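Morning. Coffee machine broken again, so started the prediction first thing and wrote up yesterday's gels while waiting. Chain of 253 residues, entered below exactly as on the submission form.
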Amino acid sequence: MSGGRSNHVWQSGDIVVKLYRPSRENPLFANDPVRERQSLQALSGTGIVPRYLSHGRWRGQDWLMYRHLAGAPWRQDTAHVARLLGILHDQTAFDGLPAGANGSQALAAQTRTILASCAPSGLDLSPLRPQGVVPPTRQTGLIHGDPVPGNLVEYDGTLALIDWQCPQRGDPAEDLALFLSPAMQLLYRGRPLGREEEAQFAAAYPDRRVVARYFALKPWFHWRMAAYCMWRNDTEALDLEVSALQSIRPSTA
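Came back before lunch.
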């Protein structure tokens, strides 16, 4: 199947088989077969994940089998995605999840780690670090960790999330930021969201506290994503994140 950036995926009838291939360490998105299997099992029956079938190992590599969702990747209607994420964030987090970056200081530390692993270049993102402090939240729970357009499937008039390789017990605002990221929208959909689309998403997400927290942490999310794009050596996506960060920096001083 096309679309996978980390693993090999095959479809046979209504069955999908994913073979997790060894890859270099990713500083932002994990590739954990155990967490993906646990996610499908824990969320079985909710309609927001594929149906888990089986798992095992082949020649030293993990594999996962699940039921195929007959649909298409998400392309429009941000309000629908907001409602889906609201449903997800109401689910109970299962045991064994790692803690996500929580608060501006944790996001800044994560960003510095990503920058330290980047190849030398002429661009220095350090001066763009946002000012101020947004404290951690106690309102943590199950988050997908990678709800980008390529991992959202429209089927039977609804939406589901696939590729559960990096769920966390974290701040729900993290999922909002990853979906709204200009870089991720460009990478998977070909263009960033417009202002009206972003406004529709924010209005449709059911918890106003999470939305307010996303806006408070937005500069740090853009700074971190810019660092990740630099690590990927994706200059077009990097420029989008830097521009987004620069457009809101005066409000963070």
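The mean pLDDT is 94. Going to sketch it on the whiteboard this afternoon.
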